[in-house]
Amino acid sequence: MDQTAIQAGAPVLPVELVLFDLLTAVLDSWTVWNRAAGSEDAGRAWRMAYLGLTYGCGAYRPYETLVAEAAAGVGLGQAAARRLEEGWRDLRPWPEAVGVLRALARHYRLGVVTNCSQRLGLAAALSVGVPFDVVVTSEQAGFYKPDPRPYQLALDIAGVSADRAVFVAGSAYDLFGTAKVGLPTFWHNRVGLPAPDDAPRPVAELATLATLPQEIRRRR
Question: pTM to 2 decimals?
C-alpha cells in the first residue's frame, strides 16, 4: 500500500504504533544548531548543508563526520561541530511534546526513527523524558533516511505492519521514504519549511504537535 492509495480512500486499520522523527518533530534541535553556529542564519545554512549530505549519501557514514563536513562546507569549521556535540545535552522537546506523547502513550506504542549515530540518538531519546518502545538510528539501520530501510526496521522491531502505524515527520524529505513502505505520515513543519516539489503529500501538515492526537483518532 502506498501513500497515494491511503489518501485515495483505502480502508484504514486501527493505529497501534506512532513513530516520530526525533530531532525535529519531537525535539527543538534547531536552537542547539543555531547556538553552536553562532546565529540563526549560520545555523540554518549549516543544517541544510548537513541534510543535503545525509539525504545524498544513503548508506551510513558516521553522523559526526557528516556534521563536521557540513560545518566546513559553510565556513564554520571544526569548532562548531564540537560545540554542537557539547550542546547535545541542551536538547529540549517542543513545549507541547511531552504532554502529547504521554497522552498518545495511553493508546499507542511509541517509537522514533532518527538520522543520528547510535550514541547520540539514544541520548537524544532519553532527553525527551518519555519512554519509547522502539528507537532506531541510521547507524543501527545502516542507512540514512529517507532510504526506506530505517522506517521498515522500526516496524519490524515493533512487529507492526505499516498500515497499523503512522509516522510524524520533522522534514518533508521523510515523505519520500515513508511512502515507499506505505507508512501514513503527518508532517510537523514547525519552522515553516517548503516541501520539495515532488514530495508525496502528507496525511496532514501540522504547525504544532498539539493537534496530533485528534488527527490520529480521525484515522480510526
Answer: 0.91
